[in-house]
Amino acid sequence: MTAVQMQLTRLPVLNRIAALATDLRGAYARRRVYQQTYSELSALTSRELNDLGIARSMIRRLAMEAAYGK
């Protein structure tokens, strides 16, 4: 097997690794959005949440929607 053939056989593996790395970066970014949203909403007082029309029991769902969509 020549060096060029060796490189061509490795290409699909490298593409899969690159795709996995991209997926992991996206998952990490979405998780950070969830954590940030959850943290910020949890830090609000009940009165501030009420002013926004948000019940404390809604925080988790709102953070999930912010990060992952519906």
What brief labels describe this structure?
70 residues; mainly alpha; rod-shaped; single chain; 0% strand
Strand segment tally: 0
Give the CA-CA distance, first to last residue.
Answer: 50 Å
SSE order, as H and E?
HHH
Shape: rod-shaped
**Mean pLDDT over the full residue set:** 90
* Helix content bin: over 70%
Strand content: under 5%
Backbone structural class:
mainly alpha
- Major sheet details: none
- Low-pLDDT regions: none
Descriptive account of the structure:
The protein has one domain. The mean pLDDT is 90. Helix content is 83%, strand content 0%. It has three helices and no strands. α1 (3-43) runs antiparallel to α3 (59-68). It is rod-shaped and about 70 Å long. InterPro entries: YjiS-like. Residues 24-60 form the YjiS-like domain.
Summarize the structure.
The protein has 70 residues and is mostly helical.
Helices and strands in order, then pairings?
Blueprint: H1 3-43, H2 46-52, H3 59-68
Organism: Roseicitreum antarcticum
Protein name: YjiS-like domain-containing protein
Pfam families: YjiS-like (PF06568)
